[in-house]
Amino acid sequence: MTLLEKILAEHSKYEVVHPGEIVDIEIDLRVARDFGGANVVKNLNDYGLTINDPGKTFFTFDCNPTGSDQKYAVNQHICRLFARQHGIKVYDIDAGIGTHILIDEGYVKPGSTVVSTDSHANILGAIGAFGQGMGDMDIAAAWHDGKVWFKIPPSVKITFEGKIPDNVSPKDVVLNMLKIFGANSLLGYSIEMYGPAVDNLDLDDRITISSMATEMGAIIILFLPTNAIIDYCSERSKTKIKSVFADPDAYYDKTFVIDVTGFTPMVSRPGQPHDTVNISEVIGTKIDSAFIGSCTNGRMNDMNKVAAILKDRKIAPGVILKIVPATDEVWKQCLENGNIEIFKKAGALVSNAGCAGCAAGQVGQNGQGEITLSTGNRNFPGKQGKGSVYLASPEVVAASAVAGCIATPDNIPEEPCLFEKIAPPIYDAKIETVNETIHEKKAVIEGRIWLIQRDNIDTDMIFHNRYLAITSIKEMGQYTFDNLKGYEDFSKNARPGDIVITGKNFGCGSSRQQAVDCFSALGIQAIIAESFGAIYERNAINAAFPILVSKDIAALELRNGDSVRVNLLTGQIDNLNNKKTSKAEPFSDVQFEVYQKGGLLGK
C-alpha cells in the first residue's frame, strides 16, 4: 500500500484498502473553526446528536480572531457556549491557525487522521499525517460518530532530482509545481514526495508546500517525516513516535521525476494560483499593498526571512504592508528576537495570529482596483478582497513592499516606485433577490439547463466568503454565482427545477457547505460536471444534492436552455430537444442512500 493507504487502513476495519473503495475511517482529531463551527453546532442540535469523544474534539478561532465582524463574533460565542456545555477545548482568538496549533501542540503525529472545516487541513501532510477539509455535515457526523466515510484516492509519487537553487524558496517550489501540474491534472490524487531535495526540507518548508495541495486539486501532499520532524513531534506530544511508510512495492497510479535545478522564483498572476510565471515577467509591476502570512507562509522561517529584508529599510510611500504570524507562539518568538521591532520600524501593520486576509475575517483584504502582492495560497477573484492579488514568496513580498513594485530581494531599487495621479475608480452597487426553494427525491429528473462552459469554478465564485456567516439555507440562494463573471444575475434568472452543466474541477477551493446549499435554496435540481473538487463532491453528496460526473457532455450537443432528462441510478442523460443521449457516472449505493434519506445526518 501507499503511504495514505497505510494510514487509512490502520484507521479502518480492513487490513488493506484500495483506490476507489469507500470505507469508514476512525478520526483521531475532529476540528471546527469559527465560521464553520456555528453550522456544526446547528447540525448537532437540530439532529439531537451527542459528542463521541470531547477529548478529540476542538474549536479553533482562526478566521476572525479580532472578532471585528458581528456575525463572526456571534458564531464564535455560539461555539464557546456549546464547548462549555460539552467539555470541548477551544483554541480561542489568541491562539492562531488551527492546523499549525495541532502540529505545534503535539495533537497530530505522523500517521494521524484529522478532519476540519478548514479546506487546508491537508497541511498536516507536512508531517506524514492525513488531514482533510470537510463541510459542516461531515464534521458534525465525525463529532458524533468518531468516524466518517471516505473514498480511497489513487496515489501519485513525485521524486525531486537535483538541488533546489538557493534563490528558490519553498513557496517558489510549490508555484513551480502548479506551473507543471495546473489546477486539475492531479485532481483527487494523494501525492507523495521523495528525493534528496525533499529530505532537506524542514517542517516550515513542508508546511508551505503541503498547504497548497488544495490549489493543485489534490487530496493531500504527503511527506515522509525526517528524524528531525519525528523528534519535534515526539517532543511536542511527549510520546515516542514511530512513522508510517509506504510499502516498497506500493502501486502508484502516476509517477513523476522532476529536475528541481530548473526551478525559478515564480509569481502567480491575479485570478488563478496555477497561472504562474517567472518573476522576471512581472518585475516592476506597481503594487498598492502587500500581505505576509496565512497558513502557507506564517511560520518562523518566513518571519525571519522577512525581517532580514526589512531591517533598516522603510516600506515604500503609499504602500501598505500587513504581517500576520500563523500562531501566537510565532508571534511571541518574533517579539523576543526583535522581528516585531523591525516590522514596526519599517512601517508594517502587525496583527495577532490567525488566517488574516485569506478568510476575509481579519487583516489583508484589499479594495476594488487595489493591487496586492500576497503570500497566501489563493488569489481567486474576491478571495482576498475586490482587488487583484499576485502570489509570491515572503522574501519577494517583503522586497516588493520596500520597492513599491514587484522586486526580488537581490535587486531592490535604491529609490522606490511612486504612484501616479489617477482618476478614482467607480464602484458598482448590487442588490440580490431571494428565490423560493423546491427539491424532491426522484431517481429520474428533468429540467432546463444552464450551460456554463468553464473549468475550475471555485467556491468563492459560487458563494463568496463574505457571506460565510449565513447559516439559514433560505438566505443563501440570492448570492449564488454573484462572484462568477457573466453570471452575477444567476439567482434572479434561475428557476426551480433548473440543472447546471459545467466543466472540470467544479467547486474547487474552500470547504464551505454554503456553495452547495445555495443551489438547493434556489431549487436547482442537479449539477453535472466533468469533475468536481474533492471537498465539494463530499458536501453535495452529504447534503443529498444530486451531482454527476460526465466526461461526454459534448455528445448531447447542448444549447443553453435545452431540457434534459437524467437518470441518477443509470447515469443516462437525454437531451429532450434533439434526442441525443450521453452517460454520466451513476449514483453509488452510498450516494443514493444519503440522497434518499435527505442527507448524511438524516434518518
Strand content: 15-25%
CATH class of the largest domain: Alpha Beta
What global shape is seen? Answer: globular
Give Rg in angstroms.
23 Å
Beta-strand segment tally: 25
Low-pLDDT stretches are 429-439
Taking the alpha carbons of the first and last residues, their distance comes to 35 Å
Any overview of this molecule?
By secondary structure, the chain is α/β, with parallel strands linked by helices. 27% of the residues lie in helices and 18% in strands. It has 18 helices and 25 strands. α6 (170-181) packs parallel to α8 (203-210), α10 (300-310) packs across α12 (339-346) and α10 packs parallel to α13 (394-403). The longest helix is centred in the N-terminal third of the chain and has 17 residues, at 70-86. The relative contact order is 0.11.
